[in-house]
Specification:
The complex is a heterodimer of chains A (465) and B (306). With 465 residues, chain A is α+β, with helices and mostly antiparallel strands. Chain A folds into three domains: 241 residues, Multidrug efflux transporter AcrB transmembrane fold (Up-down Bundle), CATH 1.20.1640; 81 residues, Alpha-Beta Plaits, CATH 3.30.70.3400; 116 residues, Gyrase A, domain 2 (2-Layer Sandwich), CATH 3.30.1360.200. In chain A, helix 1 runs parallel beside helix 9 and helix 11 packs antiparallel against helix 13. Chain B folds into two domains: 205 residues, Multidrug efflux transporter AcrB transmembrane fold (Up-down Bundle); 83 residues, Alpha-Beta Plaits, CATH 3.30.70.3400. Helix content of chain B is 70%, strand content 9%. Chain B starts with 9 loop residues before the first helix and ends with a helix. The chains are: A alpha+beta (465), B alpha+beta (306). At the A-B interface, helix 4, strand 14, helix 8, helix 10 and helix 11 of A face helix 4, strand 4, helix 5, helix 7 and helix 8 of B. Strand 14 of chain A pairs antiparallel with strand 4 of chain B.
Chain lengths: 465, 306
């Protein structure tokens, strides 16, 4: 076999150092206020909600209500609007049309000490029945009474859209108002009502709560109306949002939610990162103690393996989306540090054996690495199968492996607990990175370094002194 | 190379394994198998508080607000140093978001000086829990099926279906051990259990394959010079250091994780890495001490009968 040149060792080490450093640190350029990310570092990792805190909730229509696909996509749009209204933009939403469920995940609102996540859940699901009723009669408890209780003119299902507008509607100064467009289903009823009720009120209700009670000024036949009054921009926008959001004829209920505060997760993350560093040092120390020079080479390869795994999580390049990393995900990286030395153990054991029966160092190294690939491939294929199943079972419904394993899990809805998915991913990436580092990089380093005279001592490979 | 007669010691290994399995089965009958709210449904709420909080009064208020008999546990959040109260609702009772808000606000109104805040909530309805459990069991069943198919494919050239069956016996051994760790340590079964079981399935089978592969290779080299027991012993001893050292490094890594998680009180990781350690040990033990020797026994038994 061709000899590997002396500089190869340094080239490989340099490459590993570069990849590992880059994957931890990244490359950013600060230009004024804007930071451009070229290479993503560990600081750009998207942490799972078990680390940065957040909410995981599954909404469904009330029991017994058979929601149509249209209903569900509307409900999804409403939840999205509400999330944005709550100033939550970094959310994940997964509708499941077959099981009539919507899974929403969002992080804890940053900078809010007393953010009550359950209240946020309540607000998101609060898609109440919107009704337009005749008059504005209320009883002592604020409930609709009299003709208002009896005569529902329209429901939210008849609303095409409701928008906040700022402009000149009537003569005079521009003002804030809400523009309403009804569907064909509601045009006639609205036309009849506005004809009959000119000069008196039509009240708009969200469930049992009155949200507006405008006076009818005109007979409206084209289904396009305007609510004006003493609005501020905020109050007009809120009313428009409520009417728009109310265009869903059922309420979203939930008995499935988990929340975790960021203070719990932050400490846990730091602990796990610390555990990762200690585990790396312990494993490397063990390898060097057991195998001397090949152990030291293994330590370098292992650093590269962790670097590659982290690069696979961050997406590495600025334009590649990153992968959510959870606590079990970090545990998966650490586990693959332990698994990862398998390749080095096999070759180092072989080298040791061959040297003890009197072979030369070069011959020993060659035969040591010869069998490595098949042995590692054999050993890792089962772990690869397992990690793919883990990702398929616990992954979000739109992920590759969840779609791949859909025939297996077809009976079940998407999984709401999302922390194990990340474990499957880091396990898989760890194994793949191990192929690159544990086999190819280590072989090149080993064959190159033993061409230096100081390293050509059988003792360094486990032989007698 | 070591020189241990694993087949010679097989009686002791089998006895040890049977005792362990018996202990686990008895323990799971006596102690019962706990399920996490993820699987059975239910509600666990953790509040952080300031100052001194009267646990009994807090529990009483929570009972009144939820109209159930809750159980309550006191703990400390290491990160912030604040005290925490963990409320668990009975059985698989869960709360809607509205009810949950009412409970939290009720507690805040009753104990304003302690400023109770929700630290974490896990609230799952019984039907969703059952569905998730079924999905997880399907995942384990599917993984086992794939492993058996792989074993059948891989072992065809080694020892035929009998070797494959012994490999699967070793896997079942490992699943029982991981299950036993959860039962004996009183950890409710949750998604971590599934993750550990699947990982150990992959890991343990890989060790078994390495050993069987050696058997195949040695058979080719040695022909019929060695008895079956000698052949298996030779093969196990040849791969012994590799198998052992890879397991040691992995166990070391997981011991570090468990120790750090224990110091920082990261429960979700302790219940993951702890059972993983014992699963890894069981995996290497079952590959070395059960799968190979058991296969030898079966072959000898069959040859004696023929």
């Amino acid at each position: 076999m061709k000899k590997v040149g002396k500089p190869v060792f340094f080239v490989v080490v340099l490459l590993i150092v570069m990849i590992t450093t880059l994957s931890f640190v990244g490359i950013h350029r600060q230009y004024g206020d804007i930071t451009t990310t070229y290479i993503k570092g560990a600081g750009d990792v998207r942490w799972g909600i078990d680390i940065r805190g957040g909410v995981d909730v599954t909404f469904s229509p009330p029991e017994g209500y058979d929601a149509s696909t249209e209903d569900m996509s509307k409900a999804q749009a409403i939840i999205e609007t509400r999330l944005i209204n709550l100033n939550i933009t970094d959310y994940e939403i997964y509708p499941d049309m077959e099981q009539d469920r919507i899974i929403v995940r969002f992080p804890w609102k940053s900078g809010e000490e007393n953010f009550d996540p359950v209240r946020a859940i309540e607000e998101l699901g609060e898609t109440a029945m919107l009704t337009f009723r005749e008059g504005a009669e209320v009883d002592a408890n604020g409930q609709p009474a009299g003709v208002t209780a009896e005569n529902i003119i329209l429901t939210g299902a008849d609303v095409e859209r409701a928008e906040y507008v700022y402009g000149q509607y009537t003569e005079g100064a521009p003002s804030h108002f809400v523009s309403l467009v009804f569907k064909d289903s509601g045009k006639q009823a609205f036309a009849d009502a506005t004809e009959r009720l000119q000069g008196s009120q039509i009240s708009i209700w969200m469930d049992e709560e009155i949200i507006s009670a405008p006076t009818v000024n005109a007979h409206i036949i084209d289904g396009q109306a305007v609510i004006e009054g003493q609005f501020t921009a905020a109050s007009a926008a809120e009313l428009a949002r409520k009417i728009q959001g109310g265009a869903l004829p059922f309420k979203l209920t939930t008995e499935n939610y988990s929340t975790i505060s960021p203070s719990l997760g932050e400490g846990a993350k730091n602990a796990m990162v610390l555990a990762g560093f200690i585990a790396y040092i312990v494993v490397c120390a063990y390898m060097i103690w057991q195998y001397r020079l090949p152990g030291a080479v293994a330590a370098i390869g292992l650093a590269g393996q962790v670097g590659l795994t982290i690069a696979a999580i961050t997406g590495f390049f600025g334009f590649v989306p990153s992968f959510t990393l959870t606590l079990p995900g970090i545990a998966g990286i650490i586990l693959s540090i332990g698994f990862g030395v398998d390749a080095n153990v096999i070759t180092a054991e072989r080298i040791k054996e061959e040297i003890r029966i009197g072979k030369t160092i070069d011959g020993a190294i060659l035969s040591g690495f010869n069998r490595a690939f098949t042995a590692i491939f054999d050993g890792n294929i089962t772990v690869i199968i397992v990690s793919i199943i883990l990702m398929g079972a616990f992954g979000p419904p739109n992920s590759l492996f969840a779609r791949l394993l859909k025939p297996v899990f077809f009976m079940f809805g998407p999984t709401t607990a999302g922390t194990i998915y990340s474990f499957g991913y880091t396990l898989l990436m760890g194994v793949l990175a191990n192929f690159v580092m544990g086999i190819f990089a280590c072989r090149m380093m080993q064959r190159s370094i033993c061409r230096f005279r100081p390293f050509r001592k059988t003792w360094l490979f486990g032989g007698e002194k | 190379m070591t020189n241990i007669s694993f087949t010679g010691l097989s009686k002791r290994f089998f006895t040890l394994s049977l005792v362990i399995i018996a202990v686990i089965l008895v323990a799971s009958l006596v102690l019962g198998v706990q399920m996490d709210v993820q699987f059975k449904g239910g509600s666990i709420i953790t509040y952080s508080y300031e100052g001194n909080l009267d646990k009994e009064a807090f529990a009483k208020t929570a009972q009144d607000l939820t109209e159930t008999t809750i159980s309550i546990q006191e703990s400390t959040d290491i990160a912030t140093g604040r005290g925490t109260m963990v409320l668990t609702l009975p059985g698989s009772k869960s709360l809607t978001a509205e009810q949950m808000v009412a409970v939290t606000e009720g507690l805040q109104a009753q104990f304003p000086e302690n400023n109770p805040q929700t630290l974490s909530i896990s609230n799952v309805s019984a039907t969703m829990g059952a569905e998730f459990l079924a999905k997880c069991l399907t995942a384990v069943a599917f993984a086992s099926l794939l492993m058996i198919v792989y074993v059948a494919f891989r072992f065809r050239r080694i020892g035929g279906w009998a070797a494959g069956v012994m490999g699967v016996v070793a896997l079942i051994h490992d699943i029982i051990v991981v299950f036993g760790v959860f039962v004996l340590l009183r950890i409710p079964l949750n998604e971590n259990f599934i993750a550990v079981v699947l990982t150990i399935l992959g890991y343990s089978l890989n060790d078994t394959i390495v050993i069987y592969d050696r058997i195949r290779e040695n058979k080719k080299l040695q022909g019929d010079k060695l008895s079956l027991a000698e052949l298996v012993d030779l093969s196990i001893n040849q791969s012994f250091r590799r198998t052992l050292n890879t397991t040691i490094t992995t166990v070391l890594a997981m011991v570090v994780v468990t120790a750090v998680a224990f110091i920082y009180n990261v429960e979700s990781i302790i219940t993951f890495s702890g059972p993983m350690i014992l699963g890894l040990i069981s995996g290497v033990y079952s590959s070395i001490c059960i799968a190979g020797p058991l296969w030898v026994r079966w072959r000898n038994y069959r040859d004696a009968k023929a």
